[in-house]
Design goal:
The chain is an alpha/beta fold. It is built from 16 helices and 16 strands. An 8-stranded mixed beta sheet has the order 3-2-1-4-7-8-9-10, sandwiched between helices. Helix 9 links the parallel strand 9 and strand 10.
Length: 463
C-alpha cells in the first residue's frame, strides 16, 4: 500500500461521501487523475479529462512526447481542436506530462490506461504494454483508488490479469480498489468530438462499486448516455464484438464484390439499394482492412478461447487476401493489353491504412506492393501523410514525393488509400502509353471509368 500524497485527496471508490460531493470534488480539481499513454487516443482523452477536472498528469514512455506536451504542444496530426485544447489546459496547469509512471500513480486517485494492445507474429494478443503500465500503477496504488482500462483487450483481462496483478504488486486487498473497463469509441480525426459524447459510453466494473465510479467519471466528460453493463468482461466483449462485426461485414462485402463482377453489376449500387431496407447494413468493399483495430480484434477471441470461430477466421482470411486481389487487378489489366508484369512501371497511391491518418499497422499497401514487386513490376509508391519509407522499400517499392510522381510515367496506377492530396493529381497525364491501367481500391477515381486512354478497374465497380 502506497504512503503517497494521494491519500490526502478524496477517494471515489468505497467512499461514504455522497455522489454529489464526489462530483464536486472531481470537477473542482481535488481528485488527481493520471492518464497512461499519450498517443492518438490517449492525448485527446487526457486533454478532455484535464479540461473537465483541472488536475491531470499524462504519462508516456517517449521523452519527446512528454517534452512537447509540457510545452503546450500537440504532437498528434489531424485532430481538429486538439492543439488549442492542449495549449489551453497546459497553460492553466490542468495538464502536465511525465515519463515517470510510478510517480504519477503515487499522486493519483484515478488511473486511466489507454495504451496499445497488439498481436504477435502468430496473431496472439500481446498484453505486455498493458501489464507494464499496470506495474507502474500498482507501485503507487492506494486504497480507494479507481483504475480504468480503455485499451481494447481480450475479454476477462480485467478480471484475470489486471485486478490480480494490481493486488499482488500493490499489497492491497482486492476489495480496496476499483477496476473498470470503459472502451474507447474514438476515431482518428474526430477524437475530441467522440470523447465528449458522439456515442454512448460503455462502462463495466469488476464489482458494482467499480461500475458506479466509472459512471460518475464518464458522466462528467461525456454528454451522451452512460451505459453500465453487468461487469468488466461484458464491457471488454462489447468493444471486441464491435470490431468483429465490422471485419465480418467488410469480408461479406468483399465476397459479394466478386459475385457482382460475374453478374456484371455494380456491387455498390446493389449494396446501396439493399441498405434502404432497415434490417440491412452492408459495408463497402475495398483494397483491404488495416490499422491497429479491426484486423487484430477477432484474434482476441480466436486465439484466446476454445469456442468455434470459423466465421471470424474466414472473414480474416477474405480480408487478408484483398491487397493481393487488388494487385492482381493491375497485373491482369497489364496482361490484357499485352504488357508483361516484369518491367512494367506501376504506381501505388497511398501507404497509410486510412486516408488522413499516419498509421501503417496492417496497411493493405504492403500486400499490394509485395505482390506487384513479386511479379517483377517496377513499383513506385507515394503518400504525403507519412514520412516512413523503409518497410515499403524493403518490400520492393521506390517511395517518392508527389512532385516526383508528376515527373514520371507509368503503365498502371493502383489507388490503395484515397489521400486528399491525390485529388489534384492528373492521373491520365501519368500514362507511359495507352491504355493506362487504373485500379481504384477505394471508389475514389470513378470519374476515370470512361476517360479516353484509361483501362479502369474499381473494387466494387463493374466497369
Amino acid at each position: 500500500m502506497s504512503d503517497s500524497t494521494s491519500q490526502g485527496a478524496p477517494a471515489l471508490y468505497g467512499s461514504d461521501v455522497s455522489t454529489d460531493e464526489q462530483r464536486d470534488a472531481l470537477t473542482g480539481g481535488e481528485v488527481p487523475i493520471a492518464v497512461y499513454g499519450l498517443g492518438k487516443m490517449g492525448l485527446p482523452l487526457a486533454s478532455v479529462y484535464a479540461d473537465v477536472t483541472g488536475n491531470v498528469t499524462g504519462v508516456d514512455v517517449d521523452p519527446a512526447v512528454v517534452e512537447s506536451i509540457s510545452a503546450g504542444e500537440n504532437h498528434i496530426v489531424g485532430e481538429p481542436g486538439l492543439s488549442d485544447l492542449v495549449d489551453e489546459v497546459v497553460g492553466r496547469g490542468a495538464l502536465s506530462a511525465t515519463t515517470e509512471g510510478s510517480t504519477a500513480a503515487a499522486d493519483a486517485r484515478v488511473h486511466v490506461v489507454i495504451v496499445p494492445t497488439l498481436v504477435d507474429e502468430d496473431s496472439k494478443p500481446d498484453l505486455s504494454v498493458v501489464e507494464s503500465v499496470m506495474a507502474d500503477v500498482a507501485a503507487g496504488l492506494s486504497a480507494g483508488d479507481q483504475v480504468i482500462l480503455e485499451s481494447t483487450v481480450p475479454p476477462r483481462t480485467c478480471r484475470d490479469v489486471v485486478a490480480p496483478t494490481l493486488a499482488a504488486e500493490s499489497g492491497l486487498d482486492r476489495e480496496e480498489f476499483g477496476v473498470a473497463f470503459c472502451p474507447e469509441r474514438t476515431s482518428s480525426g474526430r477524437a475530441l468530438e467522440d470523447i465528449r459524447g458522439a456515442y454512448p459510453k460503455i462502462v463495466g466494473g469488476i464489482d458494482d462499486e467499480s461500475t458506479r465510479v466509472a459512471e460518475l467519471l464518464y458522466g462528467e466528460i461525456s454528454s451522451n448516455e452512460i451505459v453500465p453493463v453487468a461487469d468488466a468482461t461484458t464491457a471488454e466483449a462489447v468493444k471486441v464484438f464491435e470490431g468483429v462485426y465490422r471485419d465480418v461485414n467488410i469480408a461479406l462485402a468483399n465476397e459479394l464484390t466478386k459475385h457482382a463482377e460475374e453478374l456484371e453489376i455494380s456491387v455498390l449500387e446493389a449494396i446501396e439499394a439493399a441498405n434502404t431496407q432497415p434490417f440491412c447494413d452492408l459495408h463497402i468493399p475495398g483494397a483491404g482492412v488495416g490499422g491497429h483495430c479491426i484486423p487484430y480484434y477477432p484474434h482476441f477471441l480466436i486465439q484466446m478461447f476454445n469456442a468455434d470461430s470459423r466465421l471470424m477466421e474466414l472473414s480474416r482470411e477474405i480480408n487478408d487476401t484483398m491487397p493481393t486481389y487488388t494487385a492482381e487487378l493491375a497485373l491482369s489489366g497489364l496482361a490484357k493489353h499485352g504488357k508483361e508484369s516484369a518491367g512494367s512501371d506501376v504506381l501505388v497511391l497511398g501507404l497509410t491504412y486510412r486516408a488522413g491518418v499516419d498509421e501503417l499497422r496492417a496497411t493493405p499497401a504492403m500486400g499490394v506492393i509485395e505482390r506487384l514487386a513479386g511479379a517483377g513490376a517496377d513499383v513506385t509508391a507515394v503518400d504525403p501523410i507519412t514520412d516512413t519509407t523503409e518497410p515499403f522499400e524493403d518490400a520492393g517499392a521506390n517511395v517518392v514525393s508527389l512532385d516526383d510522381v508528376r515527373e514520371g510515367s507509368y503503365d498502371a496506377v493502383v489507388l490503395v488509400t484515397a489521400q486528399e492530396a491525390f485529388e489534384d493529381l492528373e492521373i491520365p497525364a501519368l500514362a507511359a502509353d495507352d491504355p493506362l491501367v487504373v485500379v481504384d481500391g477505394r471508389q475514389a477515381l470513378t470519374e476515370l471509368q470512361n476517360e479516353h486512354g484509361i483501362y479502369y478497374r474499381g473494387i466494387g465497380i463493374n466497369a
